[in-house]
Write a structure and sequence with these properties.
This protein is of the alpha+beta class. Helices cover about 15% and strands about 35% of the residues. A hairpin with a 2-residue loop joins strand 6 and strand 7.
């Protein structure tokens, strides 16, 4: 089997799609590449922010649940999502965060990489990490030479770290690379594929914490990259061989998916790289109209009538 390629997307929750859209496109300068709905509950928006063309590994997505309460932070959670920016970009972002009143920490070194921890308006836990290059949004409010261009590491806070480690290494093929301390907590780092920050999972062991009660600003699941349909079929067999309960193969139209919970309760999705977001609209106009997969298209009028226009 081929190795997991790293992060595919991270899906979080918001209580206000319009406020969310403004923050991620106007403050963070990411591109809205797909305005669609939750395929399992089309009464809610599903918004995808990414690089210029929605490349796998660049998507931060949000489900809108208007009546969602606050998050009560804890373990069994994806507790932070990193976004990559070019080397030397964080001085710009410090000024920008001051300008827009974004809650943030001072810049610090994490594994030798300058990193800026911050939260959005709903308490979504994020950070910017310097390193690498990509194809950020064109003609956005943030200059391309300092703009967000993709996902970085995913931090998980867990209560049963040994069991989560076994799933990462024995089932998914990740490898342990290093350990560091932040805020008095040990963080264990695992990577896959060719390595690098876009492939890393950071595990924080917190058996003392209750499980997180999700709400506004929490993460629903992380998706990791599988190359194609043939590899996905092999992953179905592999999960079965380990006795891991999973969703079976689901066609999300823009990619194929399998969902399962690792042993600390975090929801993990395996997702194929293709066919991609340009399947039903040109790259030049991604995110401008409500996109619906074919099985929901006959219900367009009904669905649009229930959504607040963005």
């Amino acid at each position: 089997m081929k190795a997991i390629l790293g992060q595919h997307h991270v899906s979080a929750m918001t209580g206000d799609a319009l406020k969310n859209l403004r923050f991620y496109t106007e403050v963070l300068g990411m591109r809205l590449v797909k305005k669609t709905v939750n395929q399992d509950d089309p009464s809610m928006y599903h918004l995808f922010y990414a690089d210029e063309s929605g490349t796998p590994g660049t998507d931060l997505t949000f489900f809108e649940l208007p009546f969602l309460g606050q998050t009560y932070k804890g373990s069994s959670s994806i507790s932070r999502t990193a976004l990559r920016v070019p080397d030397g970009a964080l001085s710009y972002w410090l000024e920008r965060f001051f300008e827009f009143g974004v809650l943030h920490d001072p810049v610090e070194e994490v594994l030798g990489r300058p990193t800026l921890y911050f939260e959005d308006e709903e308490g979504q836990r994020l950070c910017l990490v310097e390193g690498g290059s990509g194809t950020p949004r064109k003609n956005g409010p943030v200059p391309a030479d300092v703009a967000v261009f993709g996902l970085g590491f995913s931090e998980w806070t867990v209560r049963r770290i040994e069991k989560t480690e076994r799933v990462l290494t024995d089932v998914l093929g990740y490898r342990f690379t290093s350990e560091f301390e932040r805020n008095g907590q040990s963080v264990r780092v695992f990577e896959t594929g060719d390595g690098g920050v876009a492939t890393e999972i950071h595990l924080v062991d917190r058996p003392d914490l209750p499980s997180e009660r999700p709400g506004r600003g929490s993460v629903h699941h992380i998706a990791i990259r599988v190359e194609d349909d043939d590899e996905m079929a092999r992953w179905v067999e592999r999960l079965d061989s380990f006795g891991i309960s999973h969703s079976g193969l689901i066609d999300r139209y823009y990619f194929k998916s399998i969902y399962f919970r690792e042993l600390s309760g975090i929801l993990v999705e395996l997702a194929t790289d293709g066919p991609g977001f340009a399947t039903d609209e040109p790259v030049e106009t991604l995110g401008e109209r409500l996109a619906l997969p074919p099985f929901l298209e006959p219900r367009r009028a009904e669905i649009e009538a229930k959504l607040k226009p963005l």
